[in-house]
Amino acid sequence: MGRHVSTGTFALTSLISANAVERLVPLSSQNLTAQSNTSVLGLSDFEMQRISVAAAVSFLGGVIQVAMFVLHLGSATFLLTEPVISAMTTGAATHVVTSQVKYLLGMKIPYISGPLGFFYIYAHVFQNIKSVRLEALLLSLLSIVVLVLVKELNEQFKRKIKIVLPVDLVLIIAASFTCYCTNMENTYGLEVVGHIPKGIPPPRVPPMRILSAVITEAFGVAFVGYVASLALAQGSAKKFKYSVDDNQELLAHGLSNVISSFFFCIPSAAAMGRTAGLYSTGARTQVACLISCVSVLMVIYAAGPLLYWLPMCVLASIIVVGLKGMLIQFRDLRKYWNVDKIDWGIWVSTYIFSICFAANVGLLFGVVCTVAIVIGRFPRAKTLSIKNMKEMEFKLKREVDDETVHQVKIVLINNPLVFLNAKKFRADLMNIIQRENTSSQPHDEISKCEQNTLLNSLSNGNCNEEATQPCLNEKCSLILDCSGLTFFDSSGVSMLVEVYTDSNSKSVDVSFAHCTASLIRAMKYCGNLDPEKPIFFESVPAALSSIHSNKSLSKLSDHSEI
Question: Is the pTM of this model over 0.70?
């Protein structure tokens, strides 16, 4: 599992499991069920039935994730493009916010689900707008303003302060204490959390007889939970410079769901709020997650009953603000519009399907739509003959030192660069750079041109071992000839920017030749490129001339210092 990902209850998977609970054990059947307490934490039979359904969803969802791990389906995550994941998580976050509206407004809203249920809920709200409880609305607004303001201040001054204010915890304690002292439950009619069982129940096998009835929700939990967790893990890995095994994530989350289901736990996934808390406190290893788990355990055994008086509107406000990171992904629309309008269309359509039906339906639609579009675009792509797929090595002698050679590698990109082959493209290219940084080459004054099959992004093979001759450290430049790059998407542009950034960190200068205006505009929009350093050229000779002139200027600068 990702080093900086904290696992816990996740609003999206909780909402999916709630659909199964309300479908099999609806609240309307509570009056028809004999109210008798069980021996499990003092819960009633009705409460245990509802919890058992959620545990069954968690168990079956975990089994599905483990089965996906065994089948190595984690390698198929390249189908989950950035626009699809962004739209799906945004749509799911919108559903979660909608589920909290009744608490934010203090209204009584019947359980509504199914296709277009999102719109039916808001239609019911507007039809019964007079039933909004003003006290709950004001307390919700106050809580949201305090949470957003303090979190923004924490983010702005995190480098100046050593201890970040846990505003969520402070708000929970303050709201519970105030509600207890003023008896808001009876005085103002505010709904509170109520009784919270103390401790952990003894392990028990989830009800196997209802597994067939919750298979739809189980698949939703397995896919949505995994995709959201993987996106968070990959974001952490990119930020802290390490890699994540996509298939290993399936095993980690699958076992987490299966084992926890024996203790009546609802489905779990990566918790965005807790993960963000780890970021802000400077966590670096899994020890921080262990400390967090111990703290949660202490709350379960000691502080749980004290939360009886927590107003539900305050809890709903904390959930809504915790989803801020997903909701602000609406800003991605501007990026996709400037980079690739097809990705923009995929984002919008995936989001619409997610809110009209469900997050898992939106995810499936986004993947199918993306694959269909790429399949339709590839046959129209230009192809180059095998004789043009070559790497040319130009060695420029530096006049300062006759024995020092500067090597320029020219790599032709001969295929479209999209989410299907972006990772392969980066792996092939970085493999060349890494070998060059760890090898040396005998000095040679003779210019030569070696022909090889260096880069075929759609092939499933590796680069030809004889494709490159390593160059000297700190004296290597790379020119990417984009004349064969007929089209691209946001994933391909992001990979080009990432390759450029990583190559610079390895002392390899990267230039781009034969770039279209749309590619240049997209790369400038997606990456923080140095505007004073020219990296885009009309042709390969122009890029070579620029490299040669830069080396000459460097030589004159060195002489001036002497």
Answer: yes
